[in-house]
Amino acid sequence: MKTSSLVKVTKAEKSKIDQVDFDNLVFGKTFTDHMFVCDFKDGQWQTPEILPYQPLTLDPSAKVFHYGQAVFEGMKAYKDTDGKVWLFRPEENYERINKSSARLQMPEFPRDFFFEGLEQLLNLDKEWIKSGQADGNALYIRPFVIASQPGVMASPSTEYKFIIICSPVQAYYTKDVKVKIADYYSRAANGGFGAAKAAGNYAGQFYPTRLVQEEGFDQVIWTDDTTHEYLEEAGTMNIFFRINDTLVTCPTSDRILDGVTRKSVIAMAEKLGITVEVRKVTVKEITEAAANGTLKESFGSGTAAVISPIGTIAYKDQVWDLEKPENCYSATIKKAILDVQYNAAEDTFGWRHEVK
Amino acid sequence: MKTSSLVKVTKAEKSKIDQVDFDNLVFGKTFTDHMFVCDFKDGQWQTPEILPYQPLTLDPSAKVFHYGQAVFEGMKAYKDTDGKVWLFRPEENYERINKSSARLQMPEFPRDFFFEGLEQLLNLDKEWIKSGQADGNALYIRPFVIASQPGVMASPSTEYKFIIICSPVQAYYTKDVKVKIADYYSRAANGGFGAAKAAGNYAGQFYPTRLVQEEGFDQVIWTDDTTHEYLEEAGTMNIFFRINDTLVTCPTSDRILDGVTRKSVIAMAEKLGITVEVRKVTVKEITEAAANGTLKESFGSGTAAVISPIGTIAYKDQVWDLEKPENCYSATIKKAILDVQYNAAEDTFGWRHEVK
Ligand SMILES: Cc1ncc(COP(=O)(O)O)c(C=O)c1O
Ligand SMILES: Cc1ncc(COP(=O)(O)O)c(C=O)c1O
C-alpha cells in the first residue's frame, strides 16, 4: 500500500463490513467505512482528508441547495481472482469531472489530490471490493463536488467540497430494459450543460420517466429538444443500435454526456471486427428498422451496467419487442469489456489501472 | 400573534440581531434567528417545526447533492410605517413551489403547513424586518425543498426537507444593469424544466454569465435554444422592453419562469394606462429599435429588485446605451408596486397579505 504525504488520514474505529450482506446489495445504498473530503476556500483546495464515512454539515443557505452547483462522476473498482484491485480508465473520469466543473463555474480539482486520495481510499476499504465477475461484484465510486458557501444570491460559490464515497454493488440491470422515445419532454438544451455530469441534469428527468413507467416502460430515450427527430441518450446511459450488422450511435455534443463506456464500446466493437458508425440517428430510421426487422439489437452503455440490452422500444403508440439475435453484439462486447475490467483478458488498449 | 397547533416551536436562546448592521447588508448573507423545517418521509409530511437557525446534517449520498432534486421560492415581507408586516401575493409563491416540485417529481407541500409555518416564523423574527421603503428594507424569504434520502441511484428521493430561511435585505441593484443577449449558450430546453424554480436552472448560467462579465456586462439575456432569435428572460428576472410607448414582454412557456413580479408589472402598467403587449419578442426587432432610438427603456422584473432598469444592452459586437426617457415607465411602475408592497397606497388588486 502506498502512503501519501498529501492526504491526512483518520481511520474509522470499527468497520461496518460485518453488517453487510454482499449477496443482496441494493445499488448505491451501502457505503464503505471511509470517505475522501477536500475543501476549497480562500481560492484554493485545502489539505485533502480521508475520514470515517459521516454526515455532512452545511448551512441551510449553502449554494448547492439553491443553485444546483454540483457535479459528479461514476466509476468502478474491480477485484481480480488474485485479489488485485483495478480501475477502468480513471483518467477519463478525472478529466470529465473537471470539464463538468468548468461548465458550472466551479474550480478544477488537482490531479495528484484526485489520484492519491482515490488510491488511499481504495486501499483502506479494499475488503469491501469483492471479486466475482459473474455476479458483477465491484465497488462503485462516486466522486462529487458541491458548492458549500452560505448565501442566497444566484452567483458562483467561493467554497466547495470535493468528496469521494464508495458503495459495493452487483450487476445493475438483470432484465432487458423497456424504453420509450421522448416526443415532448427533453433532457438538455443546445448551448446548455447536458454534456456535463451535473446534478441539475437528472432531477428534470424523473417526472417524464415516471410518466413512461406508468405505461410499463423503464426509461426514456431522449431526443433533441428542437425537433424530437434525433435520438440522443438514455437517463444514465448512452445508446447504441444495431441495424443489420452495423452498430450505430450518435455523436456527442453539448447536450450529450461523453460516456466512458460509450467510447470503450466503440473501440472494443471495432477491435472485434464490428462496423461502427458514429452519426446522427433519426427516430424515423430506428422505428422503421424496428418495424421491418433490420433493427437487430439496441442497448445502453454506462458504468453501472456496462451494457444494458434493450428488450422493448416504443414510440408514441407503437411498441416493438427485440428478439436477441444469434450472434449478439451486446453480449460479446459486454463480455470483452468486463474481461478487461476484471483482469481476465489482455488489455490491448491500456485501459486498466492497478491500485497498489 | 397567532398561535398554531400545527407547528412545533423551539425558540433560539439568544437573538443574533444585535450583531447585524442593518445599514450595510449584503444580499442573502445574514439570516434571522429561526428557520422552519418540515420532513417528508414514509409517504407524508411530518410535524412542521420552527427551530433556531442551524446547519443541516445530511448523508453525503443525499440525493440533492447528486441529482439536483431541489426547488425554491423567493418572496419578501415588508414593514409599513405603522410597524405592520405584509407579504406580497404569497399565494403565487405557494402555488409555484408546488408546480416546481411536481415537475421534479417531488411531493407537494400542504397549504396550511406553508402559511402557518411562514406566519409563525415571521412573527418570531419580526424585529428583523425593518421599515424604510426608500432603502428597500425588507425581509427576503427563501422557502426551499431538498431531496434528503441517502443513495447514489438516479431515481426520485423518498425523503425531503421543506425549509424556510429569512434574510434581511436592502435594495438589490443600485445601478442600471448592463446586459448582453445570448447567441450561443442557453438556459433552458423545450420540454425541459426552465419554468420550474429548480436549483438545476441556475448553476448552468454562471459560466456564460462569467464570460459576459469579462466583457464588462452584468448579466445575460437568454434567448430560445433552437434559434437564439427570441428573447426570453434574464438570470433571475423576466424582461420588458418599451418600444415607443408600448411595453412588450414575451409570453411564459416551459422554458421561462412565470414571475410574480412580471405579472404584477403587466397588471400595474395596464392600470396606469400603459399599453402592454405580451407576445414573442425577436432579437432583431429589439436590436433595430435600440439602433433607431425607438427602444426607449428596458428593464428586468423580479422579487429581489422589483424592477432593475437596463442601462446598456449588447448583442454580438454591438452595444447600445439607453437614455432614461422623461416619462420613465420603469420608475413609475416600480414606485406603484412598492407602494402596494409597503402599504403606502391602496391595494386595488388585493395583492397585499397582512401577517398578524
Ligand atoms: C446522462 C448519462 N449518460 C451516459 C452515461 C454513461 O457514462 P459512462 O459510460 O461514463 O458511465 C451516464 C453516466 O453513467 C450519464 O449520467
Ligand atoms: C429565472 C428567473 N426568472 C424570473 C424571476 C422573477 O420571478 P419573481 O418575479 O417571481 O421573483 C426569477 C426569480 O426571482 C427567476 O429565478
UniProtKB/TrEMBL annotation, chains A, B:
The keyword Amino-acid biosynthesis applies. Coiled coil: none annotated. Pathway: Amino-acid biosynthesis; L-leucine biosynthesis; L-leucine from 3-methyl-2-oxobutanoate: step 4/4; Amino-acid biosynthesis; L-isoleucine biosynthesis; L-isoleucine from 2-oxobutanoate: step 4/4; Amino-acid biosynthesis; L-valine biosynthesis; L-valine from pyruvate: step 4/4. Acts on leucine, isoleucine and valine. The keyword Transferase applies. Its cofactor is pyridoxal 5'-phosphate. GO terms for molecular function: transaminase activity. It comes from the Bacteria. Its EC number is 2.6.1.42. It is an enzyme of class 2 (transferase). InterPro entries: Aminotrans_IV, Aminotrans_IV_CS, Aminotransferase-like, B_amino_transII, BCAT-like_C, BCAT-like_N, BCAT_family. Belongs to the class-IV pyridoxal-phosphate-dependent aminotransferase family. It catalyses: L-isoleucine + 2-oxoglutarate = (S)-3-methyl-2-oxopentanoate + L-glutamate; L-leucine + 2-oxoglutarate = 4-methyl-2-oxopentanoate + L-glutamate; L-valine + 2-oxoglutarate = 3-methyl-2-oxobutanoate + L-glutamate. This is Branched-chain-amino-acid aminotransferase. Keywords: Amino-acid biosynthesis, Aminotransferase, Branched-chain amino acid biosynthesis, Pyridoxal phosphate, Transferase.
